[in-house]
Amino acid sequence: MNKVMSLLSELSLSDEPKKHLIELKTTLITLTAPRIKELPSNLNLNVLFDSFNSSDSEQVELTVDILTHFTPFVSPVLLRGLAHPHEKVRTLVLKEIQLCSDTDMGVMSVISDAPLLLGIVSSLGDSSLGVVKVASDTLLTVCRQAEGIRAVFSSESVSIMQTVMAKSDSCRFNVYDMLVQVCLLGDLAMSTVSNSGLLDRLTAEVTTGDVLTQLNALELLTTLVVSRDGMALLHRAGVVAKLQYLLSLAENDPMAALLMPGLIKFFGNMGHTQPRRMVEEYGSVMVMILRLAAGTLDLGDPTFQLVAIETVVHIGSSPEGILALAKFKTEMDEVLDIIGTKMRTAPTDQRVRILEALAQLFTVEQEYQSEEVVGTLELWWPGVAGVNLEKLMAVARQPFADLHCAALKVLKALAYMAWGQKLIRSEPGLVEYILNRATENESTGKVMKWEIVKTLVLSSTASSIFDEFQMEQLNKYYRQGVFYVETQVEVAMEGEN
Predict the structure, then answer these.
(1) Phi, psi (degrees; rounded to nearest 5) at 59
(2) Of 121, 154, 245, 316, whose CB is crowded by the most CB atoms within 10 A?
């Protein structure tokens, strides 16, 4: 015990803190928890907290490991800090706890101290969003271990969460947000949160309360869709069926139409994650989103159409998604037609979003290509109304960096596929434009040009499509890198001033 006291004293005076920290850690490992508790209650640990003020990551990790042994001594101080009237103090305390929770021993120290753990949970109801964020992150760190999940969702802890939720709408959603983040950690986390009953309250919010509450609940539930376990849970709870019903009301019910952005995003993420299921079980939802994107369904808000177009593209941003969209030929033809029209006539900010959506839809890297997928995209390209490479290059040459780069992204998408490479080769002057570094003044444009060249050079089909000279120039451009500048040699002539 005296050794611990001596090392702490030496640490405060040392010019080599790491050496003393290593020795202190070794000493503490040999002591049992009851022996550590025999240390004086007025133990001064300020020197350990000072050790955090270092750029040496090894020293910081050593300090964290050591502090976990001293939890019984720092816990009362931490609890007072969590209740401090100044939010900076509360934030600092939570950050220190989170730092200690990064180790297995640290998690065990936190969850074995019930008052401290419940104090962290109570911080989800703090008036400061900054404090809430750190509290949520700390609980998430603790929940990365099975023992941590069980402790955070013990009956006593869940009771504290319910108390926090009763304080206000914002506090309730602070807890919901933390629940959803924990769910994404894995099967055990998902089942533990589900068994707490708190997730049922979140799913109920979607069909009750005001529109803002419903939209906030939808936003959180949309996060769960990316997980198969989350999707299964939402199906079991009947949430997906309820949302499908709300979507069906939107055409005739103005109140339901207000939920449209959230509903589109939810089903868009569902279609992105499980495109085949979306086609087989929710075909009517797909048709509605496609009609909204094409403009054949008008819900009175023009912003819905662009959101729907981006949602269609999100669904089609995988080979499985492309084939799923191909099942809706009539509707998809209408969407492609409107994409082409908007690319030419919409305001600049919308044209940028449309071009980026078009690039995303047609981007299939070589390792994910199949004859069916590439063939589908080749059939779709002429359907993009009035768009050809000449018009695309006219857009690329406009003096607007975002519009210019968005057009180059479409070129890069075409460069992945043999039929797209043939279009690039056949367009007069296009290969020369790609190889001309002088057209790019901004770094973003230089990067995009080089990305197009890289895609062509690394393609297995380009050498059979472009001639030998073109391939030689493309390879040279690729080897020279993104920011290569041609050296200008000047020769001074006799007699010049």
Answers:
(1) -65, -40
(2) 316
pTM over 0.85: no
Q: What is d(CA 136, CA 132) in angstroms, rounded to the nearest whole number?
A: 6
Number of Cβ within 10 Å of residue 269's Cβ equals: 20
Amino acid identity at 418: A
For residue 135 the two structure tokens come to: 């509290």
Query: pLDDT over 70 for what percent of the chain?
Result: 88
Contact 386, 421 (CB under 8 A): no
- Taking alpha carbons only, the member of 258, 318, 265 closest to residue 289 is 265
Tokens at 299, concatenated: 């819900």
User: What's phi and psi for 127, nearest 5 deg?
Assistant: -75, -15
CA count, 13 A, side-chain hemisphere, 332: 21
pLDDT reported for residue 21? 79
CA 374 to mean position of chain CA atoms: 28
Q: Please state the separation of Cα 321 from the chain's center in Å.
A: 20
Selection from 12-16, 51-55, 257-261, 284-288 with the highest mean pLDDT: 284-288
The span from the CA of 76 to the CA of 273, in Å, is: 47
CA distances from 91 to 65, 136, 141, 148 (A): 21, 11, 16, 21
Least confident of 56-60, 149-153, 273-277: 56-60
| Closest C-alpha among 305, 405, 289 to residue 350 | 305
What is the dihedral sign for C-alpha 298, 302, 304, 305? positive
Residue 473, C-beta contacts closer than 8 angstroms, at least 6 positions apart: 435
* CA 247/CA 241 separation, integer angstroms: 10
Sign of CA dihedral 313, 314, 320, 324: negative
Q: What are the pLDDT digits (tens) for 337-394?
A: 999 999 888 899 999 999 999 999 999 988 899 999 999 999 999 988 666 788 888 8
